[in-house]
Structures are given as structure tokens and as C-alpha cells.
Task: structure prediction
Amino acid sequence: MSVAFDADVIVLAREVPEVRLVAEVKRSIVNLADAEAALRRYMLDRKCSIGLLVTPDRTRIYRDTFADFTPDSVQLVGDYPTSDLLNVDHVPNDDRALQQAVRAWLDQLAAALPAALPKADAVRGPVVQYVVPEVADGRVSSGSLG
Result:
């Protein structure tokens, strides 16, 4: 059964309506395979290069290699502790507060604040390589484009 994907946070290019990053932020993800498939379809449909699946415990970062414009071109970069990604000791455990925390973190990255970079080396590298280029000078927004 296919799961409908409803983006919780998106980052748009500053001047054009281009989705650069999409995040699904949930207290829990019941079926990871279905959530990944829905994220991949969303990224492919909108030519979005970076996707995040965020729960209070873990964040998975995906990137579209644009190799062949199929779901296989969207690759898992890694799976990281959400607390390390957001630089917080306590990650909110309800959907709304978690979405706000992710949006605030992306807003800080978009403003090019080095303080928003994860302190943990294992997370900082992938964030600098994949996430920062997509959010730099971007517009962070809640909700889906439909």
C-alpha cells in the first residue's frame, strides 16, 4: 500500500519556486520502507536533491544523485541521532514542537550561522556537504506544496 507523502518542512530557492530540501518530521515512523518510498517519489517529482526523515531519535538524510531519475537514484547518505543534528540535549517528542525545532535549525543554516552546524563530527560532515548548499540563501517553509 502506498503512503501519501505530506512534507512537514520544505526549503525553497530564494528567487524561484524550486524545492531544494524536504523534511518529513514525525514522532514515529511506523513503516520505514513506505516512508522512504514516499520521500523518494516526492523528491523525484519535484527534482528535490535533499530529503530528511526526522524522528525524535534519528534523522536519515537522503540525496538524489539524478543518475537516472528513478527511485534508485535517491540514496541514503546516513542515519544520525537527531539530538546531534539539532545540537540539543532534549529533542521534542511531539510532532508540532519537533517540526518547529527542525524548521528553526534549517532557518539558522539558511542564515549561514556556523553555530547551527552540528558539533558532532560524524554529523557535521554530511550536513556541510549535502544540507548546507541546499538551504544557503533558501526560504524555509512549513507545509507542503501539494
